[in-house]
């Protein structure tokens, strides 16, 4: 899929270019609309954009937040809001808390670059241990203030990044 001039990658990029441009430049959009562009985030963008959308929705009364994701392998959209209109809107998921963590001594453990010929991803051999060794403490920090001690009773996710990372998190 990431081969140079591969039809799948080129087609997705062309499609994303058109859709994103049409959405961003549509004249009927109110000029008060706030736009945030995130580039070169890879899979990290998913959690980041949900955190930003939650903050925007909660701090801008009555403002729904449209998330449009245009990545090399996906084109998706979701609407995030706060204080839904009962009987009209039917929320599927509630974002209770969002946060991010930088794992100490992890520089270079996971790297991604995009070049003309491909998207290059490198997950170092130290990544599974770094993630696995910091997951439990992070879960305690996030869920304890919410009164949650059974992490399997709520939805949370660790980016898989490969079987070795999932095995470390599961252990």
Number of structural units classed as domains: 2
Based on CA inertia axes, which overall geometry fits?
flat
Low-pLDDT regions: none
Average pLDDT figure: 76
- Percent of residues in helices comes to 25-40%
Distance between the termini: 32 Å
Topology at a glance:
Layout: H1 7-25, H2 44-59, E1 65-71, E2 74-80, E3 110-114, E4 119-123, H3 127-143, H4 163-170
Antiparallel strand pairs: 1-2, 3-4
Helix pairs in contact: 3-4
Describe the structure.
The structure is a single chain. The protein has four helices and four strands. A hairpin with a 2-residue loop joins strand 1 (65-71) and strand 2 (74-80). It has two domains: 1-100, no CATH class; 101-171, Thiolase/Chalcone synthase (Peroxisomal Thiolase, Chain A, domain 1, 3-Layer(aba) Sandwich). With 171 residues, the protein is an alpha+beta fold.
Short description:
With 171 residues, the chain is an alpha+beta fold. The chain has helices spanning 7-25, 44-59, 127-143, 163-170; strands at 65-71, 74-80, 110-114, 119-123.
Which terms would index this structure?
14% strand; two-stranded antiparallel sheet; alpha+beta; single chain; flat; 4 helices; 171 residues; Peroxisomal Thiolase, Chain A, domain 1
């Amino acid at each position: 899929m990431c081969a140079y001039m591969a039809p799948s990658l080129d087609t997705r990029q062309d499609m994303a270019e058109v859709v994103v441009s049409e959405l961003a430049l549509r004249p009927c959009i109110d000029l008060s609309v706030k736009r945030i562009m995130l580039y070169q985030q890879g899979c990290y963008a998913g959690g980041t954009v949900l955190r930003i959308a939650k903050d925007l929705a909660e701090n801008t009364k009555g403002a729904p937040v449209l998330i449009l994701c245009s990545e090399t392998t996906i084109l998706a959209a979701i609407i995030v809001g706060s204080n839904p209109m009962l009987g009209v809107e039917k929320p599927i998921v509630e974002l209770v808390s969002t946060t991010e963590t930088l794992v100490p001594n992890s520089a270079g453990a996971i790297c991604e670059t995009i070049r003309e010929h491909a998207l290059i991803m490198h997950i170092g051999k130290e990544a599974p241990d770094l993630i696995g060794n910091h997951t439990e403490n992070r879960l305690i920090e996030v869920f304890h203030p919410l009164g949650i001690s059974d992490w399997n009773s709520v939805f949370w996710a660790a980016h898989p990044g490969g079987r070795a990372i999932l095995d470390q998190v599961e252990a």
